[in-house]
Amino acid sequence: MGRLDFESLIELLKLALVPAGSTMTMLFGRKAVMSEPEIQRVTFEELKTILPESCVAAGIRMYRGETESREIFLVEEVLAGYAAGLVMGSNKAQLIDDIVLSTLKEITAQSLESAKEAVTEFLGYEVQEDLLGLKRMESEAQLESWCREAGMQELLLVSWEMEIQDTVAGRIYCVLSEQILKVLGIGSNRELENNKAEPVQRDSRTYDRPGRMVKVKEAGFPEFKAEDMEETVDDIDERREKIQEITLGVSVQIGSMECTVQDILNLEEGRVLMLDKQAGSPADIVVNGELIAKGDIVVMGEQFATRITEIVNRKG
């Protein structure tokens, strides 16, 4: 992979990060700002010293025709927790569980789609991307196993920083193989550098050639420039509505109490537990560990239900 290949890949990544950041801004309701990406060639051993101890990993398959490449995106766990929390209506970092992973998967899918559209429009041909899965990475050995299973060799590591306005900043990493160059149609100068052709002996004779002369000038290409896009919560469209289709667990709590370990061990049938609320007090309605409303306990047919009496916390 020559220097020009590195530069071309970085420019395409910069192009893709603009719409991806815009999508996340709409989903978060807060501005997401990306720094310029950095790229380097790495080995598995070097990866272990660079990547954070805990992060969320997303497997990506990128292909064009029969040519394909694999990528693994890694997001620092704290950054991922805050990102999911904002979409779920909380300003706090969420613990990485199945619900949070589902939310992060939807954020990733929508960001990839907007990035793919920008790259496809620029290249003039379609490059497909499939999100293969998303999980919490528990060790560097696990990452190495994923890379080897995907046949990823000659690894490249791209990284950049993402800052979510007034919330958190963290680093995002992308591990990929040089096969990505073939998918994107980026040529390599390696053969030209390693196999320099012998100079051609030209005939010194001159010939009269009919026709007019053609002026030739050096071609110039514009630089890619990332422009900040102002987004507010009012700009959120159906892409956020898709996030809102994710199912969340809702619990209704009528009260609580504190017990010693000995009390818990001595529990038996018929024992009465005295709660901290008086009879007739409203119940707490909790989503993902956070109080969002209060309500009265009612009976509908043969089932308990809750009638909302007060909204305590609504964000989004």
From TrEMBL:
- The source's superkingdom equals Bacteria
List the keywords (alphabetical).
Cell projection, Cilium, Flagellum
Flagellar motor switch protein FliN-like C-terminal domain segment(s): 241-312
Which sequence ranges form a coiled-coil region, renumbered to this chain? none
Instruction: Please provide an example of a Pfam family that matches this protein in its UniProt record.
Output: FliMN_C
Question: What name appears for this protein in its UniProt entry?
Answer: FliM/FliN family flagellar motor switch protein
Species, as recorded:
Faecalicatena faecalis
